[in-house]
Specification:
Blueprint (H helix, E strand, L loop, with lengths): L4 H22 L8 H25 L2 H31 L7 H29 L3 H18 L11 H9 L12 E4 L2 E4 L1 H25 L5 H22 L9 H24 L9 H25 L8 H12 L2 H4 L13 E2 L1
Antiparallel strand pairs: 1-2, 1-3
Helix pairs in contact: 1-8, 2-3, 2-8, 3-7, 3-8, 3-10, 3-11, 4-7, 4-8, 5-9, 6-7, 9-10
Amino acid sequence: MSVPIWLWFVTVGIFVGLIVADFYLVDAGHHAFGVKQAARWVTFYIALAVAFGAFVALYWAPSYAGEFFAGYITEYSLSVDNLFVFVVLMSSFLVPQELQHRVLLIGVLIALVLRTVLILLGAAAVSKFIATFFVFGLFLLWTAWKVWTSGDKEPDPDGNAIVRFAERRLPSTRHYHGHQLTVVVHGKRLITPMALVILAIGTTDLIFALDSIPAVLGLTHQPYLIVSINFLALMGLRQLYFLLHGLLDRLIYLNKGLGIILGFVAIKLILEALGGTTHWHVPEISTAFSLIFIVVVLAVTALVSWIAVSRNPELAKLSGSAEADRDAAAEAGLGLSHLRDDEDDADEPGAAV
């Protein structure tokens, strides 16, 4: 798959334009992000992904479009786990409802930068050393087992070393000042909780990239497709947070489905590594089969979850969403409690920056 340099620039330009439009149009003003607005933007980003896949099929080949859709569906599904962490982090820092969309937008931008670095490093390693797939495959097998048996505890906001350092070492205030990341009070510049929760979401997402990026590398080797997959999945994820929070408690077997998908991709990676490093005749798993397998697993997972919860509503209390809500209630305000409050008078207006 040969991608001309001009197409890279055009694609990146479109992505940057979407970010700017999101920042100045969708996130304009101080308002809570409603379900209807979220539904419109989830639909938009899914439609954009479908259009991008159609473009890939027409410009290159349908097989590459299949790789894109398999990677996009997998990445989007794995990213649902992020929603649970977002719930806990928002509660930990007591983020006002009208500021939550801005927090997610900037946090996702940080995650995009960090993921892009990992993508380029991973793609370079794979292109030079096919045996890298053995490492990725074994790592995904271990991750698949953890996801299948979870209960997996989500990353602890207090365990983020970068956020912990900022909380304890930098001059700060426990009070929000709108969208501002820093504020000047009595001539002293302080960081706000807004800055810390954004940092927490952006850097915590990197933990999820450690399994999602190897997973998508197992479905396509094309950096252009992988970068596009991550952008579209992460940008659409923010609106999914506002649309699905409170409904995810019905997906009680989501971890089982994700575990199966990760295990499947792990086997695909290991078979590719065996085929590329030995003279063995190993079976090759096609892109079309991968796409069908992933869609069927997710559909069966959703259907079985829905039937089980319909028959026994008490099962919803076992879901990752319900666990996230319990964790959020337990950790409400803890992120703020760790801050050094260097603002002498919370009522004194500062020069926000």
